[in-house]
Amino acid sequence: MGVPWYEGKFYVVALRDHVNLGFSVKGLSKQEKTLFEGKGKMMRHVKFYSIEDIDETKVVKLLRLVAEKGKGC
Q: Model's pTM, two decimal places?
């Protein structure tokens, strides 16, 4: 089973007790990378343990940030 990727910049993976929404951090500043979990050089993520954990405003901001910064990559 694979992990769904979108535009090579985003992924979604369902794990046993949570879902990871992953983002390419290529082109992001050191400070911007702190918005995500993990230590990956190319990809980082945010975790959701329940539907109530999802902050739609934050998710949209992260999606826009990565989409904009990754345009030249």
A: 0.83
